[in-house]
Specification:
single chain, mainly alpha, three-stranded parallel β-sheet, globular
Length: 176
């Protein structure tokens, strides 16, 4: 029975969330061994070197049992691995690179020419990234297509109903 004139009785944007992170770490550590951790990621994760490295580290250390994303995440992550850019910007400095806006299209063509993402990783000798880590650790991923996709990459499921079914398979097993 809290007084209605009390101050900061629940979390706000100004609330420190360190306790929340501590709880999240406990859940992730538990579910790494006893659960099924599924990440849903957008392309912004691949545009920054540090966030991309962090996600790669989570995957390589067993904190990902499935990944749900779209063409854009995979395209820009592979672009970062090959060209060190995301949408033409350097993934570390965020500086536009000369003719960098072509890089994601060039990458899509290279992957399509290879026939698959795993073959492109071999052919292009890619050594880092989110999709690289998924392939290396044999973490399944679903790449759902959208009406806006350029390409798309060979593994992208363009049929939205089929993509939903593939995502449901992982979502039903997810504990985190």
């Amino acid at each position: 029975a809290a007084d209605k004139f009390t101050f900061r009785t629940r979390g706000t944007r100004e609330t420190p969330f360190s306790r929340s992170y501590d709880d999240l770490y406990k859940v992730l550590r538990h579910d790494r061994e006893h659960g099924h951790i599924v990440w849903v990621l957008g392309p912004a994760v691949a545009f920054d070197k540090d966030s991309r490295d962090a996600m790669q580290g989570l995957i390589e250390n067993g904190y990902c049992h499935g990944l749900l994303a779209g063409n854009a995440l995979a395209t820009h992550d592979l672009e970062a691995a090959h060209f060190r850019t995301g949408l033409g910007q350097d993934i570390y400095s965020q500086q536009l690179q000369p003719l960098g806006h072509y890089n994601h299209l060039d990458l899509i063509n290279k992957v399509r020419r290879a026939g698959s993402i795993p073959q492109a990783i071999k052919d292009l000798q890619l050594k880092d990234g989110i999709i690289y880590a998924c392939e290396k650790k044999e973490v399944p991923y679903v790449l759902a297509g959208s009406i806006r996709d350029d390409g798309p990459l060979p593994e992208v499921i363009s049929d939205v109903y089929a993509a939903q079914d593939a995502m449901r398979f992982h979502a039903r097993k997810a504990t985190t």
